[in-house]
Amino acid sequence: MADVATAPNPQQQVPLDTIPISPADGKNSSTDDASAPTSAPTTSDESQIRTVFDDPNNFNVKHPLMNTWTLWFTKPPSGKGDNWNELLKEVISFDSVEEFWGIYNNITPTSDLALKSDYHLFKKGVRPEWEDSQNKHGGKWAFQFKEKKAVNIDALWLHVMLAAIGENLEDEDDNEVMGVVVNVRRGFYRIGLWTRTVGKALPGDAGKGRTFEQGKETLMKIGRRFKAALQLKDNEMVEFSGHTDAAHAGSTRAKAKLTV
Questions:
Q1: Under a CB-based contact definition with an 8 Å cutoff, are residues 93 and 1 in contact?
Q2: Which segments within the chain are labelled E, that is strand?
Q3: Has residue 53 got a pLDDT over 90?
Q4: Which segments carry the region annotation Disordered (predicted)?
Q5: What pLDDT is attached to residue 62?
Q6: Apex 150 CA angle, 13 and 222, nearest 5
Q7: Tell me: the pLDDT tens digits for 96-135?
Q8: Which one, 61, 95, 107, 173, has the greatest CB density within 10 A?
Q9: Is 31 a member of any domain?
């Protein structure tokens, strides 16, 4: 699991295209060379190693994530028949701790988004859509926070994003987590976690020999970790439903297959 460190918040927001998401001197050893050091080695050159935590503007080492992630944003509909593709916008992709914090600290907090807005954080190459080939056989865990004023949605969304990019929501060989999403609605906030399957092995997974019961237990394990990231009480249930069921129901609130 990746160790996702915490960086200090900047004094003010800046345009995304000015964020120093790559080393200032053009060296990107941590992503170009998987064996490159991600922390200062104990050599005579130790003083030359600079991370974003040592020097936010002139660092030369990044801390790579296990996957590249893409942030998406859904803007509120105008009420004039907008289709989903027009509302869904790809924002930026990143593959290091430094890039994540540079982006996170310079986008609008969830609590300040307009109603019917969404943030989606998905593995690169996966669109946050039911129809995407990597999502169509899957489902999602979700929880609605109905007392909006009593919830620190910014902190909760941050916890879930860190759990996702830090690979803490699943084990290395599970290959289930596709992304996480937060929805801003009039009566609630909802945070969801999308999975690749609903427990059933897909055709390409035949060699792994995972039974449906094993797949179900994997989803339950992910659900428990997701619930922990949301800091929910034991009596507060997160629900899992399949994308196909949601599509047939014409709603994101399809009947739950699993709860935890």
A1: no
A2: 64-74, 88-96, 117-123, 139-145, 177-184, 189-195, 239-242, 258-259
A3: no
A4: 1-49
A5: 85
A6: 80
A7: 998 999 999 999 999 999 999 999 999 999 999 999 999 9
A8: 61
A9: no
- Six token digits for residue 79: 């009420």
Q: What is the mean pLDDT of residues 221-225?
A: 98
The CA-to-CA distance between both ends of the chain, in Å, stands at 23
CA distance 235 to 63: 38
CA distance 92 to 103: 8
Q: What is the mean pLDDT of the chain?
A: 82
DSSP 3-state percent helix, strand, coil across the chain (nearest 5):
30, 20, 50
Q: What pTM was estimated for this model as a whole?
A: 0.79
* Cβ neighbours of 201 (radius 10 Å): 16
Residue 42 belongs to a domain: no
Q: Find where tokens 């060296």 sit.
A: 27
Q: Is 243's pLDDT higher than 80?
A: yes
